[in-house]
Amino acid sequence: MTKYPMTVQGARALEEEHAHLTKVVRPKLSQDIGTARELGDLKENAEYHAAREQQGMVEARIRDIEGRLQNAQIIDVTSIPHTGKVIFGTTVEIANVETDESVTYQIVGDDEADIKRGKLSVNSPIARALIGKEEGDVVPVKTPSGLVEYEIVEVRHI
To answer: Is 3.10.50.30 the CATH classification of the domain at 77-156?
Structure first.
């Protein structure tokens, strides 16, 4: 079975979502279904059907989270010695060689990726180009607008 990399923070976020869905949302939906059932004829009861549909979506999400956590390889980058090399979970500051514009990304699993929050999927073109490189290296990255060169300014294990 394939294991998928995930940061400690990503696993914690999924566990918190799972707990919320099973301990708060699921019981409330059961209560809503019971209340809607008391309203009478189930064939024409919109509240009942809406609650059942919502329950199906919540149960699917719970199963999805359980599967992701079961197949996760949780990597705690803070426990790995700092070598200056870009690896999964590290936070990397890179600078565009032409414009000198710098950005910082944390390389995370697909489920955790959120470019607006600086979390870059390990499978993205930039992350794939950076993995295995070291501070000071200049890395060419294929982008839709052409080849862009980035210099790795700093690698942090946070």
So the answer is: yes
